[in-house]
Task: structure prediction
Amino acid sequence: MVGFELTEDERAFQETARKFVSDHVVPSSAHFDQTMEYPWKVAQAAQEAGILNLSTPEKYGGLGLSHFAQNIIVEELARGCSGMSTAMTANDLALGPLWEFGSEENFEELAIPMLQPAAKPKMAAYCVTEPGAGSDVAAIRTTARKDGDHYIINGEKMWITNCSVASWYFVLATMDPSKGHKAMCAFAIPAHLDGVQPGKKEINLGQRCSDTRALLLKDVKVHKKYLLKEEGMGFKIAMRAFDLSRPAVASGAVGVAQAAFDHARRYALERKTFGKPIAEHQAVAFMLADMAKDIEASRLLTWKAAKELDAGRKPTLYASMAKCMAGDTAVACATNAVQIFGGYGYNTEYPVEKLYRDSKIYQIYEGTQQIQRMIISRAILENA
Result:
């Protein structure tokens, strides 16, 4: 039977996340957007509430959440502030491939310390994108050269979330650029190693409290124990990471769209023109109707992608569908919210201009909308 109701446990996770957002995220959202400070105090509160490092298996001290439950929480976090949500869930982007392909030694050194109480939570970063290799992952030029029991890593990564605050990095490198994806290796690299150099903070359109920087890797000597699985497995591991992350990114986009709708509906019921609330004008009512239906459809598609993961099936097609649709929905809903607010929507004193800025990245990171459409079209045509 197909069901659309949350279980008792799933509803409890949703309520926990919703209360956390109300208590910690919403009150400080504007501050961190304006100052662009990293939201350490919110990350600390998230760790104390048990909603940081959502992907941690139960046997290692985590909640052992299903992907479906994780995505429910991510939607709530992004509904409060997608910048903070991105900063915190970037941990799981790095942890996902580590839990699946790392060793017990990797877990003990890199992952387990992230679960321990501390004045500042330990963060991680996922490093694949490069200045000349964004959507074209096979074109990366960061190199790994074997040197006895070590590898020497050289290259530059770009647009890395949590770059300067990470305690370790997931890094994709190649042993021979001429061999494309067949020569790629994945590493979990401690941040303290010599030659690891975060760049300047990027001032982005939105999600400004997320720490986004370039990462320079200059003659970084990495022991072979930090190689995930084996040489040549890097591309497969990176693609698996996208399968794990895209449903969560889609859920974040749904959260932004929902926040935009909530603000727009509330304002449309309060603001009056020509003697009645603007929500009673068909032009505005139809905009709200479009927002509502697209949010609902996007949410169900993200749930479908997460359920595919939990069922142990390859989720690539549905993950791309969810990410593509939810990303477009977030941008459309934020745009409509600004329009409904009118001049107030264009002003920083009101919440929807931030949502407008924050929404755009959902059409870009974790694979652009064009890449998602390429994946979808290939899948639906290959067996036609």
Q: What stands out?
A: The mean pLDDT is 96. The chain is about 50% helix and 15% strand. The chain has three domains: 8-122, 124-231, 236-381. Strands lie at 123-127, 143-147, 150-161, 166-174, 184-190, 196-198, 212-223, 272-273, 276-277.
